[in-house]
Amino acid sequence: MTFGTPEHKPRDGIDALVCGYASPVRERRVFVMLKMFADDSDSQDGDKLLFLAGYALAAPAWADFSDEWAAALSKPPVLQALHMRNCFQQWRPQAREEKLESLAVVLRKYRPFTLECSVSRAEFSSILLPHLPYDFRHAYWLLFHYFILILARHMRSKGMTGPAEFVFDNQGNVGLNALLWFQSLRKLQPPELQPFLTSDPSFKNDGDVLPLQAADMLAWHLRRRSAPECTERERELGTSIVFEYAQLHFDREKLTELASGISEIEGIENVKTRQSSLKKAKLQELARKLNGHVS
Question: Where are the domains of the chain?
């Protein structure tokens, strides 16, 4: 099946996301497309980085964007879908650069709001993980939770209306677990953030929702720019697809402060095994510790 055929139009994925809203609501609904990128390559210090990155734009703009993204993919040499890890394996370097530039042109036309949240998995494991409940043992939940809070803070500061709708790239059980606990933690956020917090983030396939491919391109370049093998051209292109920008990196200081706060929760030691679960009182205390790290 190719893009643009009667069976599948590029904007179909966006239309499916907003079909339940009345027309005036659809026009102003903000959708955030996010991609998780795990850096599995060895850096000089043996660290591993986890990035969650993506773009925010109103639904009608995403629909037009999808048409233009699909058109850029279909220009020779044709690319069925953008997946930065493996879609260019048989391509000449010049053809790869030209295709990426044509996709970057689409992004630079729409200039979506850019978000990034990242953490060293090695530092997460050594500093924060020993203090966490069992259900929060994967670093993905940390980025998932804060990503939504970062945008909520931004929308409130700009006088925007909410909530935004978050569309995450499929992450299997790790994503579903993060979603389960976010829905509980959401109710414990400050009242001023509640109007901006989505109640039901979703997970979609980037073959159905094309802006997720743009998030993949962003996340790859954000990770790549810190790698020793990053070329000047890759760095330039990555910079050109970052627009109005919000970013949070959990460095050692932030992780240590968060670990210290969580370790003070009474009874936290009793919810670190597979058989244990969080009680409401501990969840409320955990939410308070997390809220202190979003400005």
Answer: 12-291
